[in-house]
Amino acid sequence: MLLGLDFGTSSVKALLSIEGTVLAEASQAYPVETPQPDWAETDPQAWWNAAVIAVRSIAQNQPVQAIGLSGQMHGVVLASATGEPLRPAILWADTRSTEAIAAYQQLDLEMRQRLANPIAAGMAGTSLLWLRDREPEIYRAARWALQPKDWIRLRLTGLAMAEPSDASATLLYDVAGDRWAEDILATLHLRADWLAPIVPSSQIAGHLTPEAAAQLNLPAGIPVAAGAGDTAAALVGSGLVEPELAQLTIGTAAQIAVIRSQPAIDLQPERTCFDRLCLSSGMASPRCRMRA
Questions:
Q1: Which residues are catalytic?
Q2: How many C-beta atoms lie closer than 10 Å to residue 138's C-beta?
Q3: Is 132 exposed, middle or buried (0-12, 13-18, 19+ CB in 10 A)?
Q4: 205-239 burial string, b = 16+ CB within 10 Å, else e?
Q5: How do residues 127-158 score in pLDDT, each as one tens digit?
Q6: Range list of H helices, 106-207
Q7: Taking a C-beta distance cutoff of 8 angstroms, is the pair 208, 221 a contact?
Q8: Sign of the dihedral through C-alpha 21, 29, 171, 86
Q9: How far is residue 163's CA from residue 227's CA, in Å, rounded to a whole number?
């Protein structure tokens, strides 16, 4: 029996399944705060609290054997070495970092092509530039800069990891080279030491700690997969793993996602291009997403 957790913009969805058959599911909301115009934040602890409620409502005394994750993309959580969030998470819908776009636009074309995405406020890279300039003490104090579902995995396992589908949507990742873009970070005067190691999406990225297990009412030691960004996970969940197939997703945001055998990098503002999602069969599916 598998437990799946998806951390969306405004709620967590939890489900139990056996071989693809859903046995039980639950949803628990959390707030998106707007303390100033154009800001969009959530306290990561609210994600965790909601997950505890959702999981305990469906997984009581169930023989859960593994946990998989997906979550909203582009945002950023600054956390201490022990995983404690140092401030609310800045979400994908946040546009406070509009002025930081100029720093990315000054990169040479070769660098921008390796990022493979249009430069936009709300992506982790521009948000981190804003944090560097506006909240320098927190910026310096942070040990980890994580995507939302990667912070949840840290809370589950005690280990900080990242995976390609989410990492490639941060403006911190060399999509062509399949690695963190440390030379681009140096050019932007952004830290690289707080980016977590990259592991394949389907790889076990840790095991449930006794502390997390007690809160979720699950056995300690359950393996936790690296997981994926929500759009990539939705493609796999819908069975779209072959080139040229497309999917329309309508939620808090809307996208048309297309599987490509190779990344199509054109830097048009309405398109994003994310790196491969590694499946259990060993297949890899780079794909681009057009915002609807």
A1: 230
A2: 13
A3: middle
A4: bbbbbeebbebbebeeebebbbbbbbbbbbbbeee
A5: 999 999 999 999 999 999 999 999 999 999 99
A6: 109-115, 124-134, 136-141, 148-157, 164-167, 182-188
A7: yes
A8: negative
A9: 7
Q: Which residues, in sequence order, are CB contacts of 268 under 8 Å at separation 6+?
A: 118
Query: Average of pLDDT values for 235-256?
Result: 72
Task: Report the distance separating Cα 254 and Cα 33, nearest Å.
Answer: 21
Whole-model pTM above 0.85?
Answer: yes
Nearest to 261 by CA among 243, 275, 241: 243
**Mean pLDDT over residues 253-275, rounded?**
63
DSSP helix/strand/coil, 117? coil
- Give residue 246's identity as a one-letter amino acid code: A
- For the cut 70, the answer to whether the pLDDT of residue 265 exceeds it is no
Q: What are the sequence ranges of the domains in the chain?
A: 2-228
Answer whether 118's CB lies under 8 Å from 37's CB: no
Measured CA to CA in angstroms, residue 75 lies from 1, 82, 172, 188 at distances of 30, 20, 12, 18
Q: Could you tell me the maximum CA-CA distance found in the chain, to the nearest angstrom?
A: 56
pLDDT of residue 106: 96
CATH code of domain 2-228: 3.30.420.40
Residues 62-88 have a mean pLDDT of 96
Averaged pLDDT for residues 158-170:
95
